[in-house]
């Protein structure tokens, strides 16, 4: 039960992680059915799903699953299909060969847990209200930012003064901040204040609901305030897909449609915290090895060779000695 308490704790903290569970095995392997491990966005692992070879493979596939947001069944076996050592958004099964001393096989189901999409809605306008309601129904975590005077009129409890937007972003961890989608819809009342705070942080998406003329004015003010041109260029305007929207509710639908259409790009934008680590190929068994965490290395001819286990290193060293 302890691992489920840990999962609940991580979800409350809006952490990104993956749960790896052994669902099948063929002896001899060190793992057992039901063994579990938690893999975090920085590559750390808690728990046990097998020896060093399996552990590194599970870690790499768990990081890929967190980037794609999709679960994957990882099959590690001595007769695996070499060359399918990757998971993608359309890959549910990954088969990887393992040429270590063990001749066993293990199947590990990897389930990524990523926080609810976080939507910041700035402004107390009919479009902002409609957008917040619709997004909440689509399981977004919605946070409203308005003026102090407007706070009492906002229906949701998750409302903050717009002057606190910068502090709110600062308090988020880098991974959470990189997933923030923000829509500024104050109809000119405090567009510049909100965008200046948003553009100071690497948020995933910042949209401005305004006419092109009004947007040009906002851009000019931001430039005068010293906001870098490359950051200003990231503002999405006009915002919303062209579906002929007229009413506030329809405009809100068009904005959400653009956000949904951009989701694959936003996931990739936010995946800097789970970026794939440099890897090398074990010259003996052909397995990929994480360079940073490799425990078995050998320098030869000015080049560093990396190995998945001590056996491969010893075999390589013996062959070189005989040569």
List keywords for this structure.
alpha/beta; 323 residues; six-stranded mixed beta sheet; single chain; six-stranded parallel beta sheet; 34% helix
3D architecture notes:
The chain has helices at 2-12, 52-68, 126-137, 165-171, 174-177, 191-199, 212-224, 229-232, 248-261, 263-269, 310-322; strands at 17-26, 36-40, 45-47, 72-77, 93-97, 105-113, 118-122, 141-146, 159-161, 181-184, 205-208, 235-236, 279-281, 288-290, 296-300, 303-307. The chain is of the alpha/beta class and 323 residues long. Helix 3 crosses helix 9 (248-261) and helix 6 crosses helix 7. The model is unreliable at 81-90 and 270-275 (pLDDT under 50).
What is the H-and-E element order?
HEEEHEEEEHEEHHEHEHHEHHEEEEH
Strand order of the largest sheet: 3-2-1-6-4-5
The fraction of residues assigned to DSSP E strands is: 15-25%
What is the number of beta strands? 16
What is the C-alpha radius of gyration, as a whole number of Å? 25 Å
Q: Which spans of ≥5 residues are poorly predicted at pLDDT below 50?
A: 81-90, 270-275
The biggest sheet, with number of strands, parallel, antiparallel or mixed sense and barrel status, is: 6 strands, mixed
Category from helices, strands and their pairing: alpha/beta
Mean pLDDT: 84
Distance between the termini: 54 Å
Number of helices: 11
What is the overall shape?
elongated
Give helix % range. 25-40%
């Amino acid at each position: 039960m302890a691992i489920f308490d840990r999962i609940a704790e991580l979800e409350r903290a809006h952490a990104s992680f993956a749960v790896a569970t052994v669902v099948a095995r063929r002896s001899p392997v060190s793992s057992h059915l039901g063994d579990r491990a938690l893999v975090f966005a920085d590559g750390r692992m808690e728990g046990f799903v097998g020896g060093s070879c399996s552990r590194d493979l599970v870690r790499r596939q768990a990081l890929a699953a967190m980037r794609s947001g999709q679960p994957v069944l990882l099959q590690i076996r001595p007769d695996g299909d070499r060359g399918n050592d990757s998971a993608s958004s359309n890959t549910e099964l990954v088969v990887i060969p393992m040429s270590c001393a063990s001749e066993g096989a293990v199947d590990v189901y990897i389930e990524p847990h990523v926080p609810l999409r976080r939507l910041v809605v700035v402004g107390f306008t009919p479009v902002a209200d409609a957008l917040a309601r619709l997004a909440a129904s689509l399981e977004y975590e919605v946070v409203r930012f308005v003026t102090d005077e407007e706070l009492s009129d906002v229906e949701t409890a998750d409302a903050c003064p717009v002057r606190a937007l910068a502090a709110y972003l600062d308090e988020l961890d880098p991974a959470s901040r990189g997933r923030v989608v923000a829509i500024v819809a104050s109809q000119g009342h405090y567009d510049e204040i909100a965008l200046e705070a948003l553009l100071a942080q690497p948020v995933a998406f910042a949209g401005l609901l305004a006419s092109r003329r009004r947007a040009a004015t906002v851009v000019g003010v931001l430039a005068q305030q010293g906001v870098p041109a490359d950051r200003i260029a990231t503002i999405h305007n006009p915002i919303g897909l062209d579906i002929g929207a007229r009413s506030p509710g329809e405009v809100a639908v068009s904005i959400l449609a653009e956000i949904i259409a951009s989701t694959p790009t936003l996931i990739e934008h936010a995946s800097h915290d789970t970026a794939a680590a440099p890897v090398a190929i074990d010259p003996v068994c052909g397995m990929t090895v994480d360079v940073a965490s490799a425990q078995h290395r050998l320098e030869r001819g000015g080049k560093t060779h990396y190995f998945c286990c001590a056996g491969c290193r010893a075999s390589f060293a013996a062959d070189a000695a005989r040569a």
